[in-house]
Design a protein that fits this description.
alpha+beta; Alpha-Beta Plaits; 2 domains; four-stranded antiparallel sheet; 6 strands; 33% helix; flat
């Protein structure tokens, strides 16, 4: 990958609402070059999509996020792929990762309530043939997500010093 593409991707990873003119000036190239590079990377699936990061806590909409570690028995000639595909096809599931350690897959999901997430894990996820164990962690607060700090920095409170 050349330096231009790398710089475009680094910028877009932090700011997907890219201003082509501004990015072209930053990189010292013309706007058409930047637009062509982005279009080519979209075609090659280097850029897979565009997303908006929302702080749902500020919307008043109740939801619960969870991370679920899943231990599975890999399938012959397919490894973890078929099980991962089965899991990522559920609408509630946001992401599925193959991980190292005591578990094999890490599943990120959202539901309306703790009960809904628990039901999903116990009734749908744990019952998939090949799943041999799960551990669920509910996300209580997001401090940083996708490189964005989600909580405002608190001003330091100091006691007034008087003589």
């Amino acid at each position: 990958m050349d330096d231009l593409r790398y710089e475009i991707l680094k910028y877009m990873e932090k700011q997907s609402r890219v201003n082509l003119g501004e990015l072209a000036v930053m990189l010292g190239v013309d706007e058409v070059t930047v637009a062509n590079e982005i279009a080519d990377m979209e075609k090659q699936k280097i850029i897979c999509g565009y997303h908006t990061l929302i702080d749902w806590d500020k919307t008043g909409i109740e939801s619960v996020s969870a991370l679920i570690e899943v231990r599975v028995t890999p399938q012959r000639n397919r490894g973890f792929d078929r099980l991962a595909e089965r899991i990522y096809n559920y609408d509630e599931v946001h992401a599925v990762y193959l991980i190292s350690g005591g578990y094999d897959l890490l599943v990120s999901m959202e539901g309306k309530t703790l009960k809904e997430v628990s039901h999903f894990v116990s009734e749908r996820l744990s019952t998939i043939e090949g799943v041999i164990g799960t551990a669920t962690y509910f996300i209580l607060k997001k401090y940083k997500d996708h490189g964005t700090i989600m909580v405002p920095k608190k001003e330091e409170e100091r006691m007034p010093v008087t003589p």
